[in-house]
Write a structure and sequence with these properties.
Number of domains: 3
Distance between the termini: 54 Å
Low-confidence stretches: none
CATH architecture of the largest domain: 2-Layer Sandwich
Radius of gyration: 50 Å
Helix content: 55-70%
Length: about 450
Amino acid sequence: MANASIARSTSIRLAAFYISLFLLSFLGANFVAYNMVAAYLYERLDSNVTERFREISFAYDANGVDGAAAMIRSHGPAIRGQETLYTLKDSDGDFLAGNIDISDVPPGFSTRAPTSHEAALNNYRLYRKNLDGYDLTVGVSYDDTDRLRGIALVSFGWGTAIVLAGGLGAGAVLAFRTRRRIAGLSRAMKAVGAGELATRLPLSLRGDDIDILAAEINVALAQLQANVAAMTQVTTDIAHDLKTPIGRLFLTLEAASESKDQTAIRSLIEKAMGEVSHIAGTFEGLLRISQIESGARRSRFAQVNVSELVAEIYDIYSHIVEDAERSLVLSSDSRNTASFIWGDADLLKQMCVNLIVNAMRHTQRGARIAIGVTTQANRCAIVVSDNGPGIPAAERLKVFKRFYRLEKNRTTEGTGLGLSLVKAISDMHGATISLGDNRPGLIVETEFPRNL
C-alpha cells in the first residue's frame, strides 16, 4: 500500500474523469457564452455606427451639405480623440468635411485596420452610403469592444483554471483520505491473515460504500472466526473422545499379543474390533455431518410427504423399540394428513431415526416414545417426544455440539454425534429445531417451511 502511486488511485481517476467531463461541459458553455457576448458587442457597435450615420443624414436632409458638415464638426471631441471617423465627399470625390480622407471603402459595413503612418492605431467599424450624390463614410473605433471581448475571454479562462485547480485539489484530498482509510483496512486484513481472527475492519460514521463493504467483511470474519473456533473445538473433542477407545484398543491388542490362550486371544481380538468399529463410526459420523453442512446433498432435494415418511419410520421401528422394552406410538392424524416439504427423504429418515434412537438410549425401560407430524398454514413440524428424564434447560443448546454429552450420560453407549447430525440435517432444510420440556421427558420439534 505504501508503494502505490496516488496518481493511480481510484479516487484520483474518478476525480479526473468527472473533472474532464465538467470541464468539457464548462468549456462548451463558455464558448457559447463568449460568442453570444461577442455577437452582442458587435451588434451594439453596428448600431452605434448606424446611429452616427443617421445623425449626419438627418442634418443633411434638414440643411443640406452645409448642415451635414456642421454636424460633423460638432462632434469635435470624438473626432480629435480618433474615436470616430468622418469622411464627406462630393460626387467628384473631393473632400468636403471630416477628420480623415478615406478612400477605397466598400459600400455598407466594413472594417479598417490601422496603418503604420497613422498617429492613433485604432481599429474601426465603417459604414459608407450615398447621400443624394454626396459620399458619406462614418467609422467608430471598436478597440473598446475588443477589450471587452478579451476581458470576457480571460474571465472564462480564469474560471476554467479555478474549476480545474479546485477539482484536482478536491480529488487529491479525497484520494489521501481514501488512501488513509484503505491503509487501515489493509492493516486489519494483514492482522487477520496473520491469524488474529478477532480483528475487525474499522468503520467510519459516513456509512458510505467502503463502510458497507467493511461491515459485510466483518460479518464474514465473525463467521470465519466462529468456524475456526468450532473446528478447533472439534479437533480437541476428537482427540479427547478417541483417546480413551484408542487407549483401550492398545491395551486389548497388547493383552492379546501376550496371551497364550487361543480362546482369550479370540475374545480380545473381537473386543479390539469393537473398539475399531466405534472409532470408525465416529469418523463416519463426522464425515457425514461435514458433507451435510457443505450442502453437497441439495442436488437430491425433491418433494417429500412428511406424514408418509414418519408413518414409514413408525412401521419399521415400532418393533425395534418394543424389543428394547419401550413403546413407540404414532400421533393419530399423522397418517391422514399430507404435508409436503422440499428436501432429501433419506436424510429426513436419518434425522427421525437418530431422534428415536436417542430417546431409546436415554430413557428407562417401559418408557413411551411418540412421533408425529403437526401442520400449520405454511409450516409443518416433525415432533418426537418421550417421558424419560429429559434435558435441563441450561443444557439444551449445548447437546447439538459435536461429542457433547450430559455428565450423567458419560457412560452411555454412543459417539456423541447423533444430535449434531440432526441439527445439520435440520439446518440444511432451512428448518428450526427446538427442545422443550414434555413434563416429564423431552420433546423435540423440527419445524420446516411447507411446500404448498
